[in-house]
Amino acid sequence: MSAELDELYQSIILDHNRRPKNFREMEDATAKADGVNPLCGDQLTVWLKMDGDQIADVSFRGQGCAISKASASMMTQVVKGKSRTDAEQLFTDVHALVTGKPTGADVGSLKALSGVSKFPLRVKCASLAWHAMHSALQGSAAPVSTEAEGPGSAS
Question: Where residue 88 falls among pLDDT bands split at 50, 70, 90?
């Protein structure tokens, strides 16, 4: 990746961290999921408002490192208005991107998260909100943890 592209991606992440989008609780949500990354201290809740099979609204609230917060903010922007199937595909594509195994899918501005793959400990920060969104879509009540094994894990 070129230095200019690296700088652009860092700028996007810093902007989303400073001014996160959809950073609010949602009173009329139809689904929600909590997520925690004990190693970094990231904690968040993702709310979804479904209209049939479409994500009509999405928000998050919590605290965490810049990558965690930026990833959650970016996620809310791109999944709003998407179908459940499209959101699940984005979940898969973003997880592959941040783990350094991109699928080749066009993920648009989410490509800014690709640099995370160079820092294995930060992969969990970048993927936490996505795992929480995935859990909410699945209707799971169990909190998502980056350190758990099994259905609630976000590795």
Answer: very high
Spatial separation of the C-alpha atoms in residues 123 and 107, rounded to whole Å: 17
Q: How far apart are CA 1 and CA 127, in angstroms?
A: 21
pTM of the predicted model, to two decimals? 0.90
* pLDDT tens for each residue of 2-28: 677 678 778 999 999 999 999 999 999
Record: fold of 3-140: Sufe protein. Chain: A (3.90.1010)
Tokens of 75: 């996620």
User: For the chain, what are the domain ranges?
Assistant: 3-140
Q: Residue 26 carries which DSSP code?
A: -
Half-sphere exposure (Cβ direction) of 86: Cα atoms closer than 13 Å: 12
In 10 A of CB 89, how many CB atoms? 14
**pLDDT per residue over 34-53, tens digit each?**
999 998 899 999 999 999 99
Distance in angstroms (rounded) separating the CA atoms of residues 132 and 142: 10
Three-state DSSP class for residue 5:
helix
The CA distances from residue 145 to 15, 38, 50, 114, in Å, are 26, 8, 24, 22
Nearest-angstrom CA–CA distance, 51 and 57: 9
